[in-house]
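If it is no trouble, can you show me the amino acids of a protein and the tokens describing how it folds?
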Amino acid sequence: MHALGNERIEIAVTPTDADDITAGELLQVLANHPASRLTFVYGGHAVRPGYHVTEVKAGQFAALDCGANPESWTELFIQLWDVDDSPDQMTAKKFASIIRKVTEHVALDLSARLTFEVSDGVAPMQLHRAGTPTVSEGEVTVELSPRPASCKPRDRWLAEQNRASCCGGQISGAKRC
């Protein structure tokens, strides 16, 4: 549940959101491997060693979905500039210190949805969600995948159908767009 003014709105997590990690979850993994190189992988390739975190933004959103349902959520955006500006790979500790520095100036909800904005400075910025980090041989790897658009009423309807089929319950009054 999220509060919007005096009104409480229930936000359903869509099936595509279930695989997302939060900034807090990412930072927890990084804290356990501070000296490890941090590599982000998107579009089938790893970011170049000299990549930069160019911006960290926090947003609170209120919207009306295509089924006329009010929605609200918080989201963190981390912008990665995929350049080969340095031979040194960013470490988990360095990335975490950047986020910590941001928290000195901007209130960050580390349980918020996490979105990465990635560009090489030539191609348009692309929005990605982050998967669960993997750790091996001194490297933490975070797989980024494109953040797809979705129809929230349809996603809620599908989630209700899945719950009904798992629990043997009946669905009544489900609203589809």
